[in-house]
Write a structure and sequence with these properties.
Number of domains: 2
CATH topology of the largest domain: Rossmann fold
Distance between the termini: 66 Å
Strand content: 15-25%
CATH class of the largest domain: Alpha Beta
Helix content: 25-40%
Shape: elongated
Order of helices and strands: EHEHEHEHEEEEEEHEHEHEHEHEH
Largest sheet: 7 strands, parallel
Bound molecules: flavin-adenine dinucleotide
Length: 333
């Protein structure tokens, strides 16, 4: 166990060769953990023609970047990426290894945890260090979001976690930061790979819009029925916002599944979040509480949503929202 040292972040790169936002967020979170432990922070950068991104990893908080630039790593495949990461992890032995809880990050982390026979905490929303025991404290909602569970990996290394996008904060990039770039020559051969990427079919649902939206109008069961929920669409259209909803709204069929916000839906961090007719259940709040400004409209003054709201309006959505729409339409004229 003593041989393992340092904090690592898996740097995910998209098809256009840009570093994914969650990896930059993890460099911010990883920096804090590494500083607590007084060890270096490293990024693991894999792909084809990606070595040019290594400096960005350093500017975003890393001390070291391990780069494997190889044509076999052109597009994500479990087998190829797993092989490369395991070779690096076995050689350099990090004590903590973080991945974005993205489809590829989750896939890779679970495959690596299995191969290295170590523990993995999935979908983490908080990270800290128990300094005395030098243990990673990875916390995530459990039992339907009613409690936060802190999970430790006491007997195996590296301690691994996938972390939800948009819950950690990236550092302001600093191009005066210096670091080490270590390029690894690994033996990876296309003929050894059992899978090939033949085509990429993009998911062009509204989900992407929701995650990147600056303004979201979200509605809950308080709107009454699908007809009542039209007010949410109308307000969103008036102010150029995206629409989202609670799980109950999705289950009622008022909105498609990809527009659900919360623990089992999307995590969003817009500049402005309207929560209209939403009670503020913890499972919803974990997905929107990091919004910059939260405006809640609810007829119950005791509703939990007011605990996280920046501004609260107590009243009937059917009276208040039409007035807002009218006002906003007046402004836009
Ligand atoms: P309600 O709880 O019914 O609240 C309606 C609110 O509207 C009330 O506060 C009421 O006062 C108010 N209201 C009523 N009429 C009006 C009116 N005319 N004007 C203004 N306000 C009015 N939920 C999610 O949202 N996202 C998730 O990802 C999610 N994941 C879950 C995972 C698990 C494992 C579990 C167990 C639950 C999950 N839930 C999730 C469900 C969650 O617990 C709540 O049930 C849900 O968020 C409640 O939705 P709501 O606020 O729309 O409805």
């Amino acid at each position: 166990m003593e041989e393992y040292s340092g904090v690592w972040v898996f740097i995910e790169v998209d098809e256009e060769k840009n570093i994914e936002g969650v990896s930059l967020e993890l460099l911010g979170a990883g920096r804090a953990l590494a500083d607590k432990l007084n060890v270096p922070l490293a990024g693991v950068l894999l792909g084809d023609n990606i070595r040019g991104l290594a400096n960005q990893v350093i500017y975003s908080g890393a001390d070291t970047v391990y780069v494997v630039d190889h044509p076999v790593l052109n597009l994500y495949r479990t087998e190829a990426f797993m092989k490369a990461v395991i070779l690096l992890a076995e050689k350099y032995k990090p004590e903590i290894f973080l991945y974005g809880a993205t489809p590829n990050g989750k896939d890779l982390a679970s495959a690596i945890a299995t191969d290295l026979s170590t523990g993995l905490t999935a979908d983490t929303t908080m990270l800290d260090i128990d300094l005395e025991k030098r243990l990673l404290e990875a916390s995530r909602p459990a039992f339907g979001g009613n409690i936060m569970a802190t999970i430790l990996c006491k007997k195996h290394r590296p301690q691994m976690a996938t972390v939800r996008p948009k819950v950690m904060k990236a550092l302001q990039p600093d191009d005066s930061r210096l670091g080490k770039i270590i390029e690894e020559e690994l033996e990876l051969r296309e003929e050894d790979m059992r899978t090939k990427v033949l085509e990429i079919v993009k998911d062009v649902t509204k989900k992407a819009n929701l995650a990147d939206a600056h303004v979201i109008v979200a509605g809950g069961k308080g709107l009454g029925d699908q007809q009542g929920f039209q007010l949410i669409h109308e307000l969103a259209e008036t102010i150029g916002a995206s629409v989202g909803g609670t799980r109950d709204v999705i289950e009622a069929g008022w909105l498609p599944h990809e527009l659900q916000i919360g623990q089992t839906g999307e995590t969003v961090t817009p500049k402005i979040y309207f929560a209209i007719g939403i009670s503020g259940a913890i499972q919803h709040v974990v997905g929107m509480k990091n919004s910059e400004i939260i405006i809640a409209i609810n007829k119950n003054p005791e509703a939990a949503i007011f605990d996280v709201a920046t501004y609260g309006i107590v009243g009937d959505a059917h009276e208040i929202v039409p007035k807002l729409i009218q006002q906003f339409k007046g402004i836009s004229k």
